[in-house]
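lol ok so funny story. i was supposed to be doing the assay writeup but got distracted and ended up predicting the structure for this chain instead. priorities right. anyway since i did it might as well share w the group, maybe its usefull for someone
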Amino acid sequence: MTGELGGRVALVTGGAGGIGTAICEVLAGAGATVLVGYAGGEARAAALAARLPGRGAHRALLTRVDDSATLGTAAEGVRAREGRLDLLVNNAGVTTPVPHADLDGLTDEWIDTILRVNVRGAFACVRAFAPLLREGEGGLVVNISSVAGQTGLGSNVAYCASKAALDSLTRSLGRALAPDIRVLSVSPGWVDGEYAQRMPTELIAAQTARTPLGRIARPEEVARAVLAAVTHLTFSTGCILPVDGGRPLG
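and the output, tada:
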């Protein structure tokens, strides 16, 4: 397989979602073999894997991030079939819109779900796949975070907290796993995808107005930041890479 990432294997959790699909497409286009991680949408993940560039090499992979036993099985399968893993993209995440002042509206169940998937799930994935990442020539973890972790503005209070925690996880693991594995966060603002398209148009207009570059991000811009982390930012670890149009400046 030719391209910048020829011969490398990448796993993208939540790979069939809006941002995940773009990441899979960009990595496959650069020559990587892509494992499209999924929790419940096997058919959608398999369809994406089948149409990625370099078809035949890619496949869907069950990665239920809040189930460590399932992740262990997935890691064993990757070792047996691909024999290596070079890049783990922790993209799986959940949220729900709740106004920040509505303290009762953010239920215990939603708080637990958001933190379980967005934070514990990312850590569990690193723990499961770290042995494979260490065996290569410079393994990399990219956590898909959010500017909400910095600004405290997002779909709900727990979501913002989860992304701040994910960035903290990036810093801690960047230190703990060095020099064998690098760890970065890619931190977008609002992204023009499935979630944003379900929001009221006036909300997206307000977010756009607060962004110095005058628009929200495109999924492929987030994906290209992930690719850059692999190919160009080779002396970076434990850091946060913003893809937010200057949102904290607005």
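DSSP finds nine helices and seven strands in the chain. The CA atoms of residues 22 and 220 lie 5 Å apart.
back to the writeup now i swear
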